[in-house]
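User: Predict the structure for this protein chain, please.
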Amino acid sequence: MNEQLAQAIRSQLSGGQGYDHFSPSSLNIPIQKFIISYICSTQEMRRANKASYKAHYGNLCGNVAQRLLSKYIFKAAEKEEVKPELFDKIFEHELTIINKNEPKDERDAQCRIDMIPSCKASIEQTLKLVKEIFKDETLTSERYVHVTPPGLILDILGRIDFESENKFLELKSKPINFRKNKNGMGQIIQKLPNTIDDCEETYLKQVAFYWKATGKKAYLGYVNQEEYKIFEPEDDRLEYYYQQLIKKAFTIQNLLEVSKGDAKQMAKLVEAPDLKNFYYSDLTEDQINITKELWGL
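Assistant: Here is the predicted structure, written as structure tokens:
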């Protein structure tokens, strides 16, 4: 692709605000969701998406553990040294930040309250997991890393959960599930994978990206409120999933090139999204209207 067209496409992304990178997470969503979120939606529109309690559960686990264990946490390009604080104080601080986000609905609001004991237990498991991998090594969190595959017009950019000088960890939490029963809301603990073959491909693609970007030893960790699991993907597996991620990036780029970055033209090249799928459950009313207009739903 010539640079003039590449620049024209980059300038049209993010609702016309312009956008210059992919991320492992944006490459792990359906192409239809990419069109809605990263071509048609501005950054402000994406920030208005209502995440469920499950996403906040994961953020609480990761953010609290980082502040308890990491010596440095990056905020964009700035590296800040973490001041030692007590578990409960850090948890309440992070919970306050999360509660500034409006719940999806009344049920989600109640789940956000009911999840707290389980979330605290999952954080305790996270602390054990991280300690097993890194021992007493100095840890850094949230550092941005990137790769620029030849021919790709957008960098791929991501942030690392935990890393030391020669290792990194991608952390995944399995939040408590809530189900209605005759007594109200029952709780179901999600099981963790038993082997690496049971791990979600989307997570392995994320790990593969950080492995390629850093050259460090890769770990994928899972926690729930009762236990933790640690997996060490071998290089061949990581190379395979990295290539799958890159293929997805070039598929999106090819669609962008053919459509010249026009979302309406790009939508004609892929089937309409199923709005009942969980990938679309966080869309705002404005984004739903955009989706219906693009695909004539």
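The mean pLDDT is 95.
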